[in-house]
């Protein structure tokens, strides 16, 4: 029933009405709306990456703006499995033989 009622008006009509009624709410934006949002742009949250498979790729960055430990934005998100061996060896201390065995078993 609620879905049927919500479809009778646009998002831009509902938000002011709901806010006026003191209903906690916020817009659910599609990607085009996110990238066009003035606040997203003003806060420098849109990053353009050269993705190795998809070419130019716009992504929304972190909303966190930390002075002493800023969020890194110097490389795009990794491909699936791109750093698996590095994490297994450097973080978990696994040797190449153990990693190779997992790869042979198609675990990784």
Which band does the percent of strand residues land in? 5-15%
Low-confidence stretches: none
- Total beta-strand segments: 2
Rg over alpha carbons = 22 Å
Shape: elongated
| SSE sequence, one letter per element | HHHHEEHH
Structural category? alpha+beta
Biggest sheet architecture:
2 strands, antiparallel
Helical amount among residues, as a percent range? 25-40%
Biggest sheet strand order reads 1-2
The first-to-last residue Cα distance is: 46 Å
What is the typical, i.e. mean, pLDDT? 91
Give the number of helices.
6
Plain-language structure description:
With 108 residues, the protein is α+β, with helices and mostly antiparallel strands. The chain is built from six helices and two strands, in the order H-H-H-H-E-E-H-H. A two-stranded antiparallel ribbon has the order 1-2. The radius of gyration is 22 Å and the shape is elongated. It starts with a helix and ends with a helix. The mean pLDDT is 91.
Topology:
Blueprint: H1 2-6, H2 11-20, H3 31-36, H4 38-42, E1 46-51, E2 55-60, H5 84-90, H6 96-104
Antiparallel strand pairs: 1-2
Brief overview, please?
By secondary structure, the chain is an alpha+beta fold.
